[in-house]
Design brief:
Blueprint (H helix, E strand, L loop, with lengths): L2 H4 L3 H6 L4 H12 L3 H16 L13 H8 L4 H55 L5 E5 L7 E7 L3 E7 L8 E9 L6 E6 L7 E5 L8 E10 L12 E4 L2
Antiparallel strand pairs: 1-2, 2-3, 3-6, 4-5, 4-7, 7-8
Length: 241
């Protein structure tokens, strides 16, 4: 396994949730005094340790002792034991609260990391398509008060859809891209996406688009899981000719 393939595994290894065979791969690198793995694992361990400061410890109420002792008044020796039990219970509750808060924070961080990784991959793919000399740019809309943007197509390397002022969607709906062939055949599904709160979106597809066989890129509103054929009339059609 290369370092590039391992770059997103160090945090999972530090948290102890990495699959055994992948963990053994990292440990093999560490046994070989790999500086790259040592550096990145140290950073992952530092991030994991930082989670300990996310949740503030919760102290038990100051009157808890008196409330407990007021219900039963055992002998003095027993009272000391009762106080110890109450203190231990309060400490356990604080530990449970800290554990739950840390787990929630960890899950949130993992979700954010996955989102950032996806955005990074999308950006890399978009830059790769834009850098190719045969990439074409087709604009649509051209006004600020309607859906507008551009489609960058490459007959060998895929296409990029950039849209603004896109209509809002229900939680159970999504946008689906379609490639409309010149032959009159059925549109080909080309990806699902949802805009952000401002109605903007960037979607990168690896499907090659040849303007000689594809006459337009279309967008329709579909069920959340997508469709194999449009179930609504496309609200946006971008001719490529």
């Amino acid at each position: 396994m290369t370092h590039a393939e391992m770059s997103e595994l160090y945090e999972l290894y530090a948290l102890g949730v990495l699959e055994p065979e992948l963990a053994l791969e990292i440990e093999r690198h560490l046994d070989e005094q790999c500086e790259y793995c040592s550096e990145h694992l140290s950073a992952a361990l530092a991030m994991t340790a930082a989670l300990a400061n996310i949740a503030e410890p919760k102290a038990p109420p100051a009157r808890l002792k008196e409330r407990v002792l007021s219900t039963v008044r055992p002998p003095k020796a027993a009272r000391r034991w009762s106080f110890a039990v109450v203190a231990l219970a309060a400490a356990c509750l604080a530990l449970v609260a800290f554990s739950i808060a840390s787990r929630v924070a960890m899950q949130r961080m993992q979700t954010q990391l996955a989102g950032l990784t996806e955005e990074r991959n999308q950006l890399r793919s978009a830059v790769e398509i834009l850098s190719r000399p045969e990439t074409r740019t087709v604009e649509f809309g051209r006004t600020e008060n309607v859906a507008h943007g551009r489609v960058l197509v490459n007959r060998n390397g895929g296409f990029v859809f950039v849209g603004s002022q896109l209509p809002s969607l229900g939680s159970d709906r999504t946008f689906e891209l379609w490639l409309v062939p010149t032959s009159g055949a059925a549109p080909q599904p080309a990806g699902l996406f949802r805009p952000d709160q401002s109605g903007s979106s960037v979607h990168v597809s690896s499907i090659p688009v040849d303007a000689r066989t594809t006459k337009a890129v279309a967008v329709s509103v579909e069920p959340q899981q997508g469709s194999s054929a449009p179930t609504t009339k496309p609200f946006l059609i971008v001719p490529l000719a």
